[in-house]
Amino acid sequence: MNKFFKDESGIAIIMVIILLLAVGTLVSALMSAEVFNISFTENDVNQTKAFYLAEAGVQRVESLFNKHGNSIFDDQDNDFLYNEKELSFDGQPGFYKVTKDPIIEDDKAKIEILGKYKNSEKRLGITIDLSSDFSLSNVVENSLFAAGTNILGSSVINLKGSSSITGDVKSNISDYDLIQLDGSSYIDGNLSLNYQESPPENIKQEKKPGDTEWTLDNSPYDSGDGIIWHDGLYYRARYYTASHEPGTHEVWQVVIPEGENWPWFEKQIYNSGDKVWHKKENEDNKELYTAKYSTQGSEPTDLVAWERQIPNVSKNIEYTEKVDYPDVNFPQFPKFEQDIPKTIETKGNKNGILDEDGYYDQITVKSNTNLTIDRNDSDRIIRVKNLNIDQGHVKFADPNGKGKLIIYVEESINFGGSSTFGNLEQKENVIIHYAGSDSIDFKGSTKFYGSLNVESADINLGGSNAVSGYIFSGGENITVSGAVSIPGQNNNEDDGVLIYALNSNLSFNGSGSLKGSAIVNNVNLVGNTSIDYARPNFEDYFFIEDILDFENSSGGSNSSGGDNNIIWYNK
Q1: Exposed, middle or buried: residue 5 (CB in 10 Å: 0-12, 13-18, 19+)?
Q2: Which of 42, 109, 143, 513 is the most buried (most CB within 10 A)?
Q3: Residues 325-349, mean pLDDT to the nearest whole number
């Protein structure tokens, strides 16, 4: 009996050992699976972060192309295309870069971007259609673009007195009569129009059955002999001739179909009002000229007996396709937690400091007081009903000058006296969005260093104001009077001002001037006013892509535009 129990005890010990081994094996397997899952999860997260880095690189290429067009591939010093950019996730470094030089063929560019985070890599890319090179960089190649939309009986480009435009001018209009350059006004540059008429490609005609062909044997000919065919053209003899071949002497005149404008013929006699196509020597562009009086032998380009369809243009009058530019985007205004808007007012000896984002009923700065806006090298966002800067000064406080100021104004804006707003060195970091219907009036000798985005109101710049920044507007009128200066920084050729207002009539009178580029509906310059081209340096303006959507715009009737230009692919 005892022996039996001793044997059972041994069996129990063996069972316990087997059970412990099984449990140990199971625990070990579970721990291994957990370690595997943790490792798998970490690798998955790293792959996702590498993907986001590559995606950031692709979006950077898109942004550069939309701003600069095909030129991004010409600059071998392009910092993005040829250098990696470092980013970080949770303090851990990662980067994206273009893996190799873009492959360009058949008007397409293929670019591959590598995103790398720790040991994980992801490659993305885009194929860009280069046949439609339309970007903000193209837009600001002209001193003036005038859309000429819905103009009834008015000039689209109207210059009077001694006003001038220096730089190329472009317009979508197709009627010469909508451009008026009176007095001593002039355009010093090329003028491009969406003109429908073009020089005839071939004026040669086959001889019709029964028509008379000129031959020397059939000479002489006289004015009563009717039309004579020779070498692809029909002629009529002015008087008796026995030996002159048509085309070699003024006795023969080309018969030009009524209502058609043909190329200039040296031997042809033209009367006042006759029009011909002609081009300067060694140039391809033909222009239409009008005879000022009866003339024969005077070449149109000499401008003695002839005048151009639009006089006082120093360079070529060219013919181009219609261009459609994007409308201005106007943002939704931000909401803040407080229910009751606050008020800031500085006057007398009381200065003020604004050092937090918020919603204000009124901000008033006057009586030579200062309002300091502390941006703390970050974004300062302000929403206000009424902004009134009347003989006051708005200054910025930034340790490193990197802060951005975004102001949303609901009802009214007023600048007056000798007020100043901002400073020249940080003008690209300031944008005011205005939703009110009352006009914005700059009076006195205000100095405004920043940009405006106006939903629908008119803008009046008077006195001796100076504006350094960009003006975007959906309103109908921008009026510049007095001695207003809209200058680029330090008169730098590559730092002009941009006025972008496709619905607006831009009017200058007095001695007002713009140094930069204007994109408007129509323009009127009167007196000693001027627009002088300087390329806007929009690269430093953080809000450009939010206001102008060039991804969905076209540079001409053959442009595919927008999303069709850029195709993503995933590797």
Answers
A1: exposed
A2: 143
A3: 86
pTM, entire model: 0.74
3-state helix/strand/coil string of 158-177 = EECCCCEEECCEEECCCCHH
- Of 328, 327, 329, 324, which Cα lies nearest the Cα of 134? 324
| Torsion angle in degrees (nearest 10) through CA of 55, 58, 63, 68 | 170
The CATH architecture of the domain made up of 212-314 is: Ribbon (2.10)
CB 411 within 8 A of CB 386: yes
User: Residue by residue, what is the 3-state secondary structure of 5-37?
Assistant: HHHHHHHHHHHHHHHHHHHHHHHHHHHHHHHHH
Contact present, 390 and 417 (Cβ < 8 Å): yes
Q: In the chain, what are the helix, strand and coil shares in percent, each to the nearest 5? A: 20, 40, 40
514: helix, strand or coil: strand
Cα-to-chain-centroid distance, residue 325: 8
CATH architecture for segment(s) 2-129: 2-Layer Sandwich (3.30)
Range of weakest confidence among 145-154, 227-236, 307-316, 372-381: 145-154
Of 159, 153, 145, 144, give the one whose Cα is nearest residue 175. Answer: 153
Rounded to whole angstroms, the Cα distance separating 113 from 45 reads 19
Yes or no: say if 382 and 358 are a contact pair by the CB < 8 Å rule: yes
Asked whether the CA dihedral 364, 365, 371, 377 is positive or negative, the reply is: positive
Sign of CA dihedral 539, 540, 545, 548: negative
**Quick check: helix, strand or coil at residue 328?**
strand
Residue type (1 letter), 401 = G
Characterize the bridge pairing of strands 212-213 and 227-230: parallel
Task: Return the minimum-mean-pLDDT range out of 19-33, 264-278, 516-530.
Answer: 19-33
CA nearest to 177, candidates 157, 150, 194: 157
Which residues make beta-bridge pairs with 287? 278
Strand partners, 452: 432, 471
Per-residue pLDDT at 41: 77
Please enumerate in sequence order all residues whose Cβ is within 8 A of that of 72, keeping only pairs 6 or more positions apart, or say none. Answer: 61, 64, 65, 78, 81
276 and 299 Cβ atoms separated by less than 8 Å:
no
What strands, in cross-sheet order, belong to the sheet with 287-291?
A: 262-263, 275-278, 287-291, 306-308
Query: Which residues have a Cβ under 8 Å from the Cβ of 387 and sit 6 or more positions away?
Result: 362, 363, 407, 409, 412, 413, 414, 432
Q: Domain limits of the chain?
A: 2-129, 135-194+320-325+469-553, 212-314, 331-434
Say what the pLDDT of residue 66 is: 67
| CA atoms 436, 440, 446, 449: torsion sign | positive
Residue 516: both structure tokens together: 């930069």
Q: Is the peptide bond before 220 cis (omega within 30 degrees of 0)?
A: yes
Indicate the DSSP class of residue 315. Answer: S
Spatial distance between the Cα atoms of 453 and 462, rounded to a whole number of angstroms: 19
- With 0-12 / 13-18 / 19 or more C-beta atoms within 10 angstroms meaning exposed / middle / buried, residue 97 is buried
Q: What is the pLDDT of residue 556?
A: 42
